Amino acid sequence: MTAENNFSENEEKNIQDNQEETTNTVQNDETSANEEIEHHDEPEHEELNLADALKEMESIINSTAAGEQHKRFNFLKEKANHFIHDEVEDKRHEHTDAGNPSEHFSYHHPQQSRFNALVHIFKEKHDDFQKHLDEEQHKNLAHRQEIIERLKNLYTNSEPGVNLFKSIREIKEDWSNSGQVAKSEFKILNNNYFHHLNQFYQMLDLNKEYMEQEYAHNLEKRQHIIDRAKELENEPVIQKALNELQYLHKLWKEEAEPVAEEYREKTWEEFKEISNKIHERKSELSAAIESEQNENLEKKNRIIEDIKKLSEPGDNPNHNFWQNAIRKVEDLRTEFLKTGSVPRKLSNQNWNDFKVTLRNFNTQKNSYYKSLKGSQQTNLDEKLKLIATAKDNMNSEDWDIVVPLFKKLQEDWKKIGHVPKSMTNKIWEDFREACNTFFNNYREKSNVSNDNWKENYKTKRALLDDLKLVTDEEGSVEKIESIKTAWNNIGKVPRDKIGINSEFNKALREKLKLNKMNELELKEEGLSENQLTDKARKIKTQISELEGEIVKLENNLSFFTKPTRENPLLAETYNTLDSKKAHLETLKQNLHNIISGE
C-alpha cells in the first residue's frame, strides 16, 4: 500500500521507525485486556410461595422476551414443583393418619394442571427463541467475517486518497455494534479480528498524530469507566453495584483498548483497585442476608410453637374449638410458607419440625372426630326408630291420629344430630319415602269424594286453550304462572283423556321459550309432595351444572395476566359469566322456597 496521498516524505521515515513500537503496543493492549478480572453474580437468596412462583412463571411466558429468561423460569419451576410435591405428601399423611390405607390415597393438586400448562407453553417459546437466536448468530457471524475482510482490505488494497482514519473508525464501530455469535465461533473470530487490527497498526503509514488521537480517544473512555466505578462505591444496593461493575469490565475490554504506554498500567491498576473495593462490600450483603435469615428463623419457630399449642387443647375440646383451630393452623401454615429463607444449615431441621408439628395437630384433630362416631351411632339408632314408626303407619287411614303423628315424626327427625356420613343419604330416602307414601294417600283419599273426572277434563281443556293464546307481551309470565297453578289444583281426568297432560306440558314449554324463561324458574302452587321433590331434584342438578360452568369460565380468565371487561376479547366471556351467575341465583332462591315451603 502507498502513502503518497496521506504523508510527506519526511513523515514516512518517522512512521517506519515507530512501526515496531506500535506492534508491541497493540500486543500489550490485548494482553492487558485478557488479564481482566471477571466477576460473577452470587445466586440470589429469595423465598417464594407456590402462588408467587406460578404468577411469575405466567408473567414470564406472557412477556415479549420469554425465551431469554430460561434460567429464572427453571428456578421458579423447581420451586413450584417442590411446593406441589410437599402439599401432596401432606395430604397423603393426613389420609394415612385418619386410618385409611395408603394404597387408596388419591389426590390431584389444584394447581398441577396450571403448572403443567405453563411449563409446556414456556418450552415452546424457548424453542422458538433458541431457533431465532441460532439464526441471528449465523447472520452475525457472516457480518463479522465481512468486517474482517474490510479490515484486511484496508491495509492491503486501499486506494490512494482513502481517509484511513475515518475508515478504521467505522470498522471498529461496526465491529462493536455487531451482535453475538456462537461461543464456539467467538474465540477464533475475535483472535482473527485483532490479528488483522494489529497488522493494520503495524503496516499503516499513519503519522504519530493519528496514534495519539486513537490513544486519547480510548483514554477518555477509560476515564469515564473509572469515574462511574467510583460512583458505584457509594451505591446503597450492593447487588446492583456488582452487576453494573461487571458491565463496566465488559466495556473496558471491548471499547477502551489501546492507550498510550504511560497510561496503560496506571489506569488499569486504578480501575482494578476500585473493583476490589466494591467486591469487598459483598460481606455487607452476606451480613444483611444472614440477619434477615435469622429473623425468619425466629418467626418460623414462633409459628411452630403456636401450632403446638393448638395441638394440645385443654379439657374436653368441642367441635367449635377444632373448627377454629383448623382455620388458625391454615393461616399459620400460609404465613410460614410466605416467610423468607432461613440459614442453610438449619433449613432442613426447621422444615422437618414444621411438618412434624402439622402432622401431630392433624393426628389430634382426627382422634377427636373419631370419638364422635359413638354419638353418631346413637343418633342413627334414634332415626332408625322413627323410620320404623313411619313405615308401620304409612298405610293407615285413621287421619285424626296418624296425621299429627307424622308431623311429630318430621319434627323429631330435625332435632336429632348427625349420623355417620355413609348412612346419611340412605336413611333420609327411607324416611322421606314413608312420609310421601302416607301424605299422597291422605291427599288422594281426602279429595276422591269431590273428584269429578269428566268435569276435570273440561276445566283442563279450557286452561290449555287459554295457554295456547298467551303471547310474549307484558304480563304473559304472570298469566302462565296463574294457568299452571290452576292446572296443579285440578284432579284426575278419565284414563282415555290422560294425553291432555302431555299436550299441556308441550304447550307450556313453547310459551316459556317464547318468553325466554326457564321452566324451573316458574312460580307455581298446588304441587304434590312428589312433584315438589322432583322439581327440587331437577333444580339441584341444574345448579351443580351451572356452578361447574362458572368455575370453568373463571379458570379460563385466570390464564390472562390482567383480565378486564374492557378487553374486547373477553367481553363476551364476561357477559356469559354474568348471565350464568344471575340464573344460578334465581335457581337457588327457587330451591330455597321449595325447601322452606314458601
Comma- or semicolon-separated keywords:
single chain, 598 residues, mainly alpha
Mind explaining what this structure looks like?
With 598 residues, the chain is mainly alpha-helical. 76% of the residues lie in helices and 0% in strands. The chain contains 20 helices and no strands. The radius of gyration is 43 Å and the shape is elongated. Mean pLDDT is 79; it is low at 1-44.
The overall pLDDT, averaged over residues, is 79
| Strand segment count | 0
Q: Number of DSSP helices?
A: 20
Sheet with the most strands? none
Apparent shape? elongated
| Terminal Cα span | 108 Å
**Oligomer kind:** single chain
Brief write-up:
This protein is an all-alpha fold and 598 residues long. It has helices at residues 9-34, 50-62, 70-97, 112-156, 164-177, 183-203, 208-232, 238-255, 261-280, 282-311, 319-338, 344-371, 373-393, 399-415, 421-447, 453-468, 476-488, 499-514, 529-558, 571-596.
Topology:
Elements: H1 9-34, H2 50-62, H3 70-97, H4 112-156, H5 164-177, H6 183-203, H7 208-232, H8 238-255, H9 261-280, H10 282-311, H11 319-338, H12 344-371, H13 373-393, H14 399-415, H15 421-447, H16 453-468, H17 476-488, H18 499-514, H19 529-558, H20 571-596
